Amino acid sequence: MSTAVSRFPHLRQDFAASLVVFLVALPLCVGVAVASGVPAELGLITGIVGGLVTGLLPGSSLQVSGPAAGLTVLVFEAVDAYGLPALGVIVLAAGLLQLAMGALRLGRWFRAISLSVVEGMLAGIGLVLIAGQLYAAAGLTAPASGTDKILGLPGAVADALGSTEALASLAVGAGTVAVMVLWRRMPGPAGAVPGALAAVLLATAVTLAFGVPVATVEVQGLLDAVQPPGADAFGGLGIGVLGTIVAFTLIASAESLFSAAAVDRLHDGPPTRYNKELMAQGAGNTVCGILGALPLTAVIVRSSANVRAGARTKASRVLHGVWLLLFAALLPSALALIPLPALAGILVHAGWKLIPFRAVATLWRGQRGEALILVVTAVSIVVVNMFEGVLIGLALAVAKTAWEASQAKLEVIDKGAGPLQVYLTGNATFLRLPRILDTLESLPRDRPVELDLTGLHHVDHACLTALRNWSERHSAPGTAPVKLTERPAEEKGLPVTAT
Asked: Distance between CA atoms of 199 and 482, rounded to whole angstroms?
């Protein structure tokens, strides 16, 4: 025993933390799988891989990986479009791509992604997730697109009000959400039980005790759920699946690495090594793809629970994978008792937490441009789809950055006699060119003009060419030509650079 303690000095803390993470992960693994339109066991398999494969690898020592609510919408769309056998191919390809990006040391570049785009992505996912799970909570079939899900909610409410079974199912889902919200206020040992687990247990007990007519999880067995992709799955996919693979890769990677940054702020241990963490996520997704399971990402809910439970090393996340494996192997029939509306309630709660209400309010008060990017990204995901919505958000973020970086000030000084003195300072790019030229072309052509560009930090090729052309043709016949002064490129300090 003393030898074990000396080799694993934090085993007691990690063992206790692993049990907490297991209890948090169990209902979420099952709920994410059901919401993704795949067998419940596949969620457990992904959780197991997240613990036993990703958990063993270097990167972030306390971050926990598994199936994430943030990928639920994307997985559902992929399964609906290409079929369940193709899911393994998509996840496998995404995992290999993550491994390649980690090997090329691209992990740290994900930290350069606009936070507003990431929060907008999560908000859009949350909105679609909530809308879809409200149908599931009432035992109804949700429309396919995000827009139809939201617009169809009034009709779904009317249908639910006319059905006793739908109302009973909806009551179980609403009760689950209420328990999760209120459970954190429970005093004593009961409050230490994860709210999601408590809500599922209570919902299961109530439906069994009172015979509430609700649908429950379908169980087919762990081994039967594992369906490695065969040759048909690889051969049946066209070029259109590449966009889905890229979306899986980018969104899973961004979510994992942003989660790692958040987890680093929760503890004082070794910081995340981003490239190694990206490779660890890639290895996990490669294994998940081979097993035909759900994609995995680092999950902030499980990770923060791990840190707060006192975990000190990666042993806690590995052990949580062991407990998931034992549950899936020894107690699979217990899944069949879980009401589907209870899982829908868990996902509604998870979707709500994905929407950054405080961030939107803060940005709106201080940086409305960033708030606009967040909102446009979220709305685009709901209206179009996940991949194109994120691309729209990224394009808007790049455009905003380029616009803000192109701050040029044009000052005209007229002393009444002599030439007009024009000073252009800041950063002159094509984005500001129309406004600059409008001002310059409004200057009188019958007076000499001195245009001074020495105050510019940067001028792009389009702007410099346009300024030179203007200076050559502005002056009227008989008037001295425009005197254009540029800073020599070799001058020290901040030279004018043409790109």
From this structure: 77
Do 316 and 21 touch, CB atoms closer than 8 A? yes
- Residue pLDDT, tens place only, 182-202: 988 888 777 778 888 899 999
pLDDT, mean over the chain: 87
- Parse the chain into domains and list their residue ranges: 9-354, 408-485
Q: State whether residue 412 is helix, strand or coil.
A: strand
d(CA 126, CA 359): 15
Phi first, then psi: what are they for 14, rounded to 5°?
-70, -35
Tokens linked to 245: 């693979």
Return the structure tokens found at 174.
């609403």
Distance in angstroms (rounded) separating the CA atoms of residues 236 and 255: 29
Predicted pLDDT at 79 = 92
Residue 298, SS3? strand
Q: What is the pLDDT of residue 179?
A: 94
From the DSSP assignment, how many helices (H) and strands (E) are in the chain?
22, 7
Q: Note the pLDDT tens digit of each residue in 132-145.
A: 999 999 999 888 78
Residue 272 — very low, low, confident or very high, per pLDDT cuts 50/70/90?
Answer: confident
Say if domain 408-485 classifies as CATH 3.40.50.720. no
The DSSP-derived string for 92-156 is HHHHHHHHHHHHTT-GGGGGGS-HHHHHHHHHHHHHHHHHHHHHHHTT-PPPSSHHHHHHTHHHH
CA 263/CA 249 separation, integer angstroms: 21
Confidence class of residue 493 from pLDDT cuts 50, 70 and 90? very low
What does DSSP say about strands 297-298 and 65-66: parallel, antiparallel, or unpaired?
Answer: antiparallel
Helix (H) or strand (E) holding 161: helix 153-161
> Taking the alpha carbons of 338, 341, 342, 345 in that order, is the dihedral positive or negative?
positive
Nearest to 337 by CA among 40, 66, 32, 129: 40
CA distances from 269 to 8, 61, 63, 272 (A): 16, 8, 12, 9
Which of the pair, 478 or 200, is modelled with greater confidence?
A: 200
Question: Quick one: tokens of 289?
Answer: 């793809």
**pTM given for the model:** 0.79
Ramachandran angles phi, psi of 324, nearest 5°: -65, -40
pLDDT above 80 (res 323): yes
CA-CA distance, 12 to 113, in Å (whole number)?
38
Nearest to 94 by CA among 76, 78, 109: 78
* Span 373-387, average pLDDT: 88
* 347 pLDDT above the threshold of 70: yes
